[in-house]
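Review form for a predicted model. The reviewer records the input and the model, then writes brief findings.
Reviewer: anonymous (R2)
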Amino acid sequence: MNHPDARTVVTDYVNLIAAGEREAAIALFAEDATWTYPGHLPISRTWQGKQEIFGDFLGRIGDYFAPDGLPVITLTHVLADGPQAVAEWTTVGRAANGEPYENHCLGVFTVENGRITAVREYLDTDHVARTLLA
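Model under review:
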């Protein structure tokens, strides 16, 4: 069976999230996928499985933003080599405390059999702490 390559899967994932197509984006993840969020924040750790990633972690990110300031995600680059793809995107919104939020994010994705199995995200965690978690 032919599966889409890592570049296609990761590009589709970020674009689906940006478009608000949550269920279609979740479908691109393996059941036992992991997402590692950096730093020493309350949300910094390796999230295990689709339920933790999309329920307890990414599913609650909106709580940190103002109702009318939900983040806009824009994919800026994708580089891929074999099962790995590196995606760069910007996230712009307004935090629940009214502060403007803009972060430049990078994720190293591993894709196996057409599904994302691991993500290691990198971003300015100090900015997250000062704006979203303040």
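Findings: The mean pLDDT is 96.
Further findings: The helical segments are 6-18, 22-26, 49-57, 125-131.
Recommendation: see findings above.
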